[in-house]
Amino acid sequence: MTNPMPTQHRSEAVATGDNRAMRNPWVLTMLGIIVTVFVVNAIFISLAVSNRPDVYRATDGSMASEGSYIAQRRGWETLGWSSSLRIGDALRVGSPAAFRFAVADERGEPVVGGRAQLVAERPSSGDSDLSVPMTETAPGQYVASLPLTLQGAWRVAVEFNHGEHLLRSPVHRITVAE
Question: What angle do CA 27, 31, 32 make, to 5 degrees?
Answer without folding.
Answer: 115
